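Record type: monomer structure entry
Structure origin: computed from sequence
Chain ID: A
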Amino acid sequence: MLPQIRGRIVTLSSEFHRRAKLNLDDPNWRRRRYNSSQAYNDSKLANLLFARELHRKLLACGSQILSVAAHPGIVHTGLFGHVNGAAGLYLDIGSRIVGHDVEKGILPALFAATQEISGGTFVGPNGFRQLRGFPAIVQSSKNGNNTQLGQRLWQLSESLTGTRFDCGIPRPAV
């Protein structure tokens, strides 16, 4: 799809990326006991790293396309219904107390898609601990800025999908 994109790509992440323990040696949880909460956290860090690595690759190709990331904060949507036990109950109640509704939760993604911001930027709510609030450019975790980890994830993704990035045109791996 990259040849058809003219403006920017917004990748959705989550504030839960801060709890990630991304294991690139076992990304599909084959050698570890599966933990749905941890898998979610890891996937959100992977999304953020993807957005930033895509930005670096597009920039290196001279592309005008921007790649940015956004997270909605805590939004009460019922998303945490798959989380079992006390953690699920905690997340459901917590999202009702400290989170915001879907209409406010979508604002960071809209901001990331429409405002004048730099590639590689991370947008989220500006309130306490980025749980809710108005959209703003926010800081990610240290791992969310880890270029080396982003490059390793990109290489793993190319290997697992059998494709490689070539200045905006994905091609089959040789």
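Annotation 1: The helical segments are 36-60, 85-98, 102-105, 107-114, 147-161.
Annotation 2: The beta strands are 8-12, 66-70, 122-125, 135-137, 163-164, 171-172.
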